[in-house]
Design brief:
The protein is mainly β and 116 residues long. It has strands spanning 4-5, 9-15, 26-33, 37-38, 41-44, 47-54, 56-61, 64-69, 73-76, 83-86, 93-100, 106-109. It has a single domain (10-107), classed as Sandwich (Jelly Rolls). The structure holds fe (ii) ion. Fe (ii) ion binds at residues 42, 44, 83, 85.
Protein backbone atom coordinates (compact mmCIF):
# COMPACT_ATOMS: atom_id res chain seq x y z
CA UNK A 1 0.00 0.00 0.00
CA UNK A 2 1.24 3.47 -0.85
CA UNK A 3 1.17 5.59 2.29
CA UNK A 4 0.67 9.29 1.67
CA UNK A 5 0.99 12.10 4.16
CA UNK A 6 -2.40 13.54 4.96
CA UNK A 7 -5.71 12.25 3.70
CA UNK A 8 -7.19 11.95 7.17
CA UNK A 9 -10.05 13.99 8.61
CA UNK A 10 -9.41 15.93 11.82
CA UNK A 11 -12.33 17.39 13.80
CA UNK A 12 -11.84 19.35 17.02
CA UNK A 13 -14.46 18.10 19.48
CA UNK A 14 -13.40 20.27 22.40
CA UNK A 15 -10.95 23.07 23.05
CA UNK A 16 -10.48 24.77 26.42
CA UNK A 17 -12.39 28.05 26.71
CA UNK A 18 -9.12 29.82 27.47
CA UNK A 19 -7.53 28.22 24.40
CA UNK A 20 -4.87 25.56 24.14
CA UNK A 21 -2.27 28.10 25.24
CA UNK A 22 -4.14 28.82 28.48
CA UNK A 23 -3.22 27.46 31.90
CA UNK A 24 -5.65 24.56 31.48
CA UNK A 25 -5.11 23.86 27.80
CA UNK A 26 -6.95 20.77 26.64
CA UNK A 27 -7.89 19.76 23.11
CA UNK A 28 -9.87 16.68 22.06
CA UNK A 29 -9.75 15.74 18.40
CA UNK A 30 -11.45 12.98 16.38
CA UNK A 31 -9.45 11.54 13.50
CA UNK A 32 -10.93 9.47 10.67
CA UNK A 33 -8.18 7.57 8.83
CA UNK A 34 -8.88 6.14 5.37
CA UNK A 35 -6.60 3.28 4.31
CA UNK A 36 -3.20 4.67 3.31
CA UNK A 37 -3.48 7.94 5.24
CA UNK A 38 -0.79 9.05 7.69
CA UNK A 39 0.52 12.06 9.54
CA UNK A 40 3.78 13.76 8.70
CA UNK A 41 6.69 12.99 11.01
CA UNK A 42 5.92 15.38 13.88
CA UNK A 43 6.02 16.04 17.60
CA UNK A 44 3.88 17.97 20.09
CA UNK A 45 4.36 20.31 22.98
CA UNK A 46 1.74 18.22 24.75
CA UNK A 47 1.21 15.02 26.64
CA UNK A 48 -1.53 13.09 24.91
CA UNK A 49 -3.63 9.98 24.68
CA UNK A 50 -4.90 8.16 21.61
CA UNK A 51 -7.94 5.88 21.86
CA UNK A 52 -8.75 3.75 18.82
CA UNK A 53 -12.51 3.38 18.36
CA UNK A 54 -12.58 1.53 15.02
CA UNK A 55 -10.02 -0.25 12.89
CA UNK A 56 -6.29 -0.23 13.55
CA UNK A 57 -3.43 2.27 13.44
CA UNK A 58 0.33 2.16 13.64
CA UNK A 59 2.72 4.54 15.30
CA UNK A 60 6.37 4.79 14.22
CA UNK A 61 8.56 6.33 16.89
CA UNK A 62 12.21 6.02 17.89
CA UNK A 63 12.85 3.24 15.35
CA UNK A 64 9.92 1.09 16.53
CA UNK A 65 6.47 0.46 15.10
CA UNK A 66 3.58 -0.08 17.51
CA UNK A 67 0.18 -1.34 16.39
CA UNK A 68 -2.97 -0.25 18.18
CA UNK A 69 -6.42 -1.59 17.45
CA UNK A 70 -9.98 -0.75 18.48
CA UNK A 71 -10.15 -0.53 22.26
CA UNK A 72 -6.44 0.19 22.72
CA UNK A 73 -5.17 3.33 24.44
CA UNK A 74 -1.80 4.84 23.60
CA UNK A 75 -0.31 7.36 26.02
CA UNK A 76 2.22 9.76 24.58
CA UNK A 77 4.41 11.29 27.22
CA UNK A 78 7.47 12.02 25.09
CA UNK A 79 6.47 15.53 24.19
CA UNK A 80 9.31 16.22 21.80
CA UNK A 81 9.71 12.77 20.21
CA UNK A 82 8.95 12.82 16.47
CA UNK A 83 6.47 10.16 15.36
CA UNK A 84 4.20 9.12 12.50
CA UNK A 85 0.67 7.74 12.95
CA UNK A 86 -1.21 6.13 10.09
CA UNK A 87 -3.53 3.46 8.78
CA UNK A 88 -1.85 0.81 6.62
CA UNK A 89 -4.83 -1.53 6.83
CA UNK A 90 -7.64 -2.14 4.34
CA UNK A 91 -10.41 -0.64 6.51
CA UNK A 92 -10.93 2.93 7.77
CA UNK A 93 -9.95 3.69 11.36
CA UNK A 94 -11.32 6.20 13.87
CA UNK A 95 -9.46 7.52 16.90
CA UNK A 96 -9.87 10.14 19.60
CA UNK A 97 -6.79 12.16 20.60
CA UNK A 98 -6.63 14.23 23.77
CA UNK A 99 -3.80 16.71 24.31
CA UNK A 100 -2.99 18.42 27.58
CA UNK A 101 -0.79 21.43 27.19
CA UNK A 102 -0.28 25.09 27.72
CA UNK A 103 1.12 25.60 24.27
CA UNK A 104 -0.14 23.11 21.74
CA UNK A 105 1.96 23.02 18.63
CA UNK A 106 2.99 20.42 16.07
CA UNK A 107 6.38 20.49 14.34
CA UNK A 108 7.03 18.57 11.12
CA UNK A 109 10.25 16.81 10.10
CA UNK A 110 11.48 14.86 7.07
CA UNK A 111 10.69 11.14 7.24
CA UNK A 112 13.33 9.08 9.11
CA UNK A 113 15.32 6.43 7.22
CA UNK A 114 13.23 3.31 6.70
CA UNK A 115 13.98 0.40 9.05
CA UNK A 116 11.31 -1.97 7.65
FE1 LIG B 1 1.16 13.11 17.17
Amino acid sequence: MVMQTGGYDRTILYRSPDGVDGPHGIEIVRFVWPPGSRTPNHDHSATGTVIVLEGALYEKKAGRTARITAGDVLVEVGMDVPHIVGNDGAEPAVSIHTYFTRQLRMNEYPDPPSTD
